[in-house]
């Protein structure tokens, strides 16, 4: 367990550093902006009790909005990415800073205020020399409270494509990988503790030094953000992928293929960007340019098609046509493999009973004990369809996706459901039974982009179409296995595949 | 006659339509130590705060150096008026040195000069140079108020206002600070307006004393005039305000024990002085003092053991 954790940590240290950087960047801006809003506001309203009470109410109400809902509400207005994440965090952080600044300033001994007045201090001088220094410990503790909250809540930013440590947690949940969840959670907690210490340290430092240090931090973070913003101004292709190893391998292939076509083109990858609807919205709002999407998902989730053809080619054609007319998007040609549901048994078990298709299970159904995911058992095109179409029946236990593999490995069950490209199929020596009656819908991956982008970059379209009808289920399983289990980097796995299949030798003109 | 430093002309002050000062007229002469005395609610602090415009009069004029305080810019007015508070109210986040240099810094005095000023001032109040870097909460109450006084003096003001500066201190610290204030006053010759509710303190410090009650100045005069010719009205007023209504319960022997008996050696003319016994009460003493300056006290063997005058009795009363 611990060894696994350390392994995962070492293997991911680069992406962990990147996530930490993003997390810090989002948190820093959110904290800075909320201080810049809340502190002057509190200074302004401290003399007017009623207005102050009004603002306390408002900031209090803002804080009660569930963070997830707030992020969702912001998407129509500011899209996805770092901007809405920072806005949401600012909304959250306002209350503690505002409240503490207000309390700190209004609880100053009135005789000290009178002394300052009687010495002939101007209002700004009194504020900066007397009032703020006295209120500072209370203000700082408000800032600290906000900051811990920001760092914790910023993990949700991953949901809207802003990256950060939350992407580890999301990825972990998605892959049922406790190590990844732990890495994300522990890093966020450590970050909160360390920054909390930093604030203590700053408070103890003399005012001038603290100011210098803070300015340096601001320039550093601001400079990095600014640099990112400027580089983004250049025509650059941003390719994003959903959570997981497979999309990350694919987008690495996309980048390599584009580079072969045009070495000068700058390509930025955004792996583990989020779930389907986020990617789709990001594509709509031009925050990303390309992402791989499955044909079945297009019909089911994106265009809400009323009919679903059974032939894979017809599914692709329908998806392509609907995307073009409804969303002005271009859907390039799909790869060969079909990432759909499957029924798997151990390879030895299949050999012993001569199992090749799902239908073959019928002859041994008395011997079967199945472990399946709850979603598969519930879906109309899942277990129910199998039982109906193949006339098989066996006892089924519902279990978590990851547990199924362990259960079949330890012999507790002997049939499970799976995704046809899962790396565990290879890891645990499992065989997927053929769905010869085509009960499961087809999910073939293909690059999706806006039609306007495709017209501007015919070279990119040409480069990506070279993947069409390539990569079999066995091959993608193997690649997933190398990334997930052997901990190779998705980039090297992608590169290796393209190299083996002679796709790196320059585009045929 | 010299021009008064501070002058109140028909000054009225009300809070929320409720009058606190009614028609106040007062001239304070350059270099004098003027004490405003009165019980709480008499309007003495309100009067003080109208001088440096912490409060504005509702009607009438307050003049400083012959000019209406309204016509000064606030910093200009306040930099020449030092202010010492009852709550001391040093700036808690600033060191002793920083507190003292608040006004000189605003006046853009060179750093070197400020440094020397602090050195000299600390010496004058008998504090070691190491106190410079201490924070107010590291000082005793008496030490804090020394710094409070230095903060008020640092801008070299012509006028210093003191609002019950020693009433929160213990008797020992109060005594030594009173000495200090007198010493500094002799040294700098600035005009001091000092507010207190303690008659003893007023008599000890003031060149002139003004007695206030219910927003009116009842009497202004030197300690001698006040003690020797108090209006009956004043004595009754001032003491009835305090808890002195049971004067007939206080015995002469108690006043003697408290140490306010004047020994016979100090009194030159002892003849024809009315006398009381040690078992008499204070009301009787006061009744006699209203018409004569001296009362003798007769011991158990009919010998005169000492005397009371107005001043000693008032001093005694102010200690209760």
From TrEMBL, chain A:
Q: Where in the cell is it found?
A: Cell membrane; Membrane
Top-level taxon: Bacteria
| Domain ABC transmembrane type-1: residue ranges | 20-203
Q: Name one GO cellular component term.
A: ATP-binding cassette (ABC) transporter complex
Q: Which GO terms describe its molecular function?
A: transmembrane transporter activity
What are the record keywords, sorted? Membrane, Transmembrane, Transmembrane helix, Transport
Listed under GO biological process in this entry are: glycine betaine transport
Output the InterPro entries linked to this UniProt entry: ABC_Gly_betaine_transp_sub-bd, ABC_transp_perm/SBD, EgtUBC_SBD, MetI-like, MetI-like_sf
Membrane topology note: Multi-pass membrane protein
Indicate the principal place this protein occupies in or around the cell: membrane
Q: Does the keyword tRNA-binding apply?
A: no
User: Which Pfam families would you find in this protein's record?
Assistant: BPD_transp_1, OpuAC
Which protein family is it in? In the C-terminal section; belongs to the OsmX family. Belongs to the binding-protein-dependent transport system permease family.
PANTHER family assigned to the protein according to its UniProt record, in alphabetical order: GLYCINE BETAINE/L-PROLINE TRANSPORT SYSTEM PERMEASE PROTEIN PROW (PTHR30177), OSMOPROTECTANT IMPORT PERMEASE PROTEIN OSMW (PTHR30177:SF4)
- Protein name, please? ABC transporter, substrate-binding protein, QAT family
What species is this protein from? Lentilactobacillus diolivorans DSM 14421
Upper lineage ranks? Answer: Bacteria, Bacillati, Bacillota, Bacilli, Lactobacillales
From TrEMBL, chain B:
Organism's domain of life?
Answer: Bacteria
Pfam families, A to Z: ABC_tran
InterPro entries named among the record's database cross-references:
AAA+_ATPase, ABC_transporter-like_ATP-bd, ABC_transporter-like_CS, P-loop_NTPase
What sequence ranges are listed for the domain ABC transporter? Answer: 6-239
- Give GO MF terms, alphabetically: ABC-type quaternary ammonium compound transporting activity; ATP binding; ATP hydrolysis activity
Which PROSITE patterns does the UniProt entry name for this protein? ABC_TRANSPORTER_1, ABC_TRANSPORTER_2
Record keywords, A-Z: ATP-binding, Nucleotide-binding, Transport
Answer yes or no on keyword Nucleotide-binding: yes
Q: What is its EC number?
A: 7.6.2.9
- Asked if Heme is a keyword of the record, the answer is no
| PANTHER family per the UniProt record, alphabetical | OSMOPROTECTANT IMPORT ATP-BINDING PROTEIN OSMV
Q: Give the family per the record.
A: Belongs to the ABC transporter superfamily.
Name of this chain's protein: ABC-type quaternary amine transporter
Q: Which organism is it from?
A: Lentilactobacillus diolivorans DSM 14421
Provide the taxonomic classification.
Bacteria, Bacillati, Bacillota, Bacilli, Lactobacillales
